[in-house]
Automatic annotation (TrEMBL):
Protein name: Carbohydrate ABC transporter substrate-binding protein
Pfam families named in the record: SBP_bac_1
Gene3D superfamilies for the chain: Periplasmic binding protein-like II
Domain of life: Bacteria
InterPro entries membership: SBP (IPR006059)
SUPFAM superfamilies for this protein: Periplasmic binding protein-like II
Amino acid sequence: MTEIIRGNKVKKTINLKGITWNHSRGFLPMVATAQRFSELHPHVQITWEKRSLQQFADFSIQELAVRFDLLVIDHPWAGFASKTNSIIPLDDHLSPEYLKDQEENSVGASYESYNFNNHQWGLPIDAATPVASSRPDLLAEKGLSLPKSFEDLLALADKGLVAFAGIPIDVLMNFYTLCCSLGEDPYQADDLVISKEIGVKALKMYRQLATKMDEANFNRNPIQVYEAMTLTDEIAYCPFAYGYSNYSRNGYSRKHLHFHDMISLDGKTNLRSTLGGTGLAISSKCEELKTAVEYVKYVGSSACQQSLFFESGGQPGHLMAWKNAEVNRQSQNYFSNTLPALERAFLRPRYHGSMFFQDHAGDVVRDYLMKGGNEEQVLADLNKLYQESKTLTLA
């Protein structure tokens, strides 16, 4: 094994491997922080690999934890992590003072989202929720203003200027958004995803909007929506998709996007979307645990989040970064404009079987949006999947 001589001490080289997701927001800040950490600790080398956004949502962290020391994860995996012990509880290794700072500076429920069974399974290094986005130049060119209500949104969609992310996972998250915004959070009962009254109303509203969409949208994730909005001049507005501050920064895309809070259904309260973001976790099989913990601590720190992490393309998970004037200046006020949406975002279930439900329920809602059908049957199919997913906790 290679040895590093520093001063009069010889240190063995420590190699850590990490896995994150394939976008500038997901990959570049991890590479940058790994590089800087290695400069501060020359005996440490951290290598990051990347996987697709779909694999990020779907691929089991238990399998990844066998191959990697560090994992950027999605918070619905918290229950699975707790049951399988595939990653370590960070509260056993980070100081109470450090974790208290993280909790007090959580962007919405981001910190809580990685807490399950009284343990912290990940550090929220990235915060996101569906928000609205627009091409201000296109709206101005056509003499149009941002929609404020659902009726405004439908009118803009009639002009062919609206898109939303329509792949199954995003369709499901936005179904939750409409349910929450109609006054009822999903999963309030053990055997129902949502009440029949609210569920039917949400599906009908969603279908009404979906019929005005180009079919191409049903094959787009949020990244692909934003690429379409910036590479062409055909889409002026997206009412809800997980926000990416990269598209509001100088030099990143052909045209800037501006990001906003979302429309209101009742004229008073804006839509309540479904929390996303990513967390940094450590595999239970990591042999260099002390070093991995130090790296996690560095990446999640307020200082790193407000500077290197953001400047390398990241979307911070620390509240001080979201309130930082320079961070907002460089992103067309992305963070200050969308923070209210993060603060009220719905925290979806994270029980062990929740990923099974998430993997299948989006197909049900998406099929209905594309083809129509009986709303009560859609809800029945969702409830059946929900009940099946709950039995997986006993497996």
